[in-house]
Model the fold of this input.
Amino acid sequence: MMYKDAGIVVEGGGMRGAYTGGILDVFNENGIKFGGAVGTSAGVTHLCSYLSEQVGRNFRIDTIHSKSKKYMSWGNLIRTGEFFEVDYCYRQIPYEIDPFDMEKFAEACKETEFYACSSNLETGGAEYLRVMDYRIEHDKDAIRASASLPLMSHIVNVDGKKLLDGGISDSIPFAALDQKGFKKQVVLLTQPEGFRKKPNSMMPLFKIIYRKYPKFIEVAADRHIRYNACLDQIAEREKQGSFFVLRPSRAMQISRLEKDKSKLVELYNLGRSDAEQRLEELKKFLEG
Done:
């Protein structure tokens, strides 16, 4: 069922995205589609497999392909300046190892307005770039920019803009769908109820590495303040009935760079369970 007037928002969080991978598989299995979609960082990459309707693909990437040192390793960072090897993640996996259904994805993106949120180093603001076709270099780079972690990735240039991880400027980018007129939104969070973000302990390094970009340093420094305010806004709009929020129903000790397969499997299954338990409630929200 296509809910043209509703949008889906997916938070990042690195490997914690295994949780949203479980939710999105349940949505696919139940034919739940949205008129708009926006994600930040890992949220964008998980939405790609959701839009291509490849149930289980995100699960395989998180629990199998991520085990490769080519996927993520400190060795990659030392050798190339990229913690996540670009060729492995954005060419080998989607084209060879676990083929991404690019035809289906492009077809879905005609119906669903899909945006990748990234952070502009020069302005400090969020960029919401429309993605239509992974085979187009611009669109692939928009996805990559959103998921390129500061201090662990090279800056990605798209449309003459210098971009990195969208989480710095807009971790939960419901504002993008607000701008597009989606008043009803389903928000997928990767932290449990009661979570509050703390100040970034890596700010001294940010100030050195990104000294040419003072506005980016500013937004990185106060990210926790904006993130927590964002959670308050989401809670308010959930009470008002315009947002439907899914978040982990219990806390789990999962690192954003987690490699423990058993933990990732457990987190994925938690996402599935939480989505299944609230499926009827979700349908009423979308149809109401």
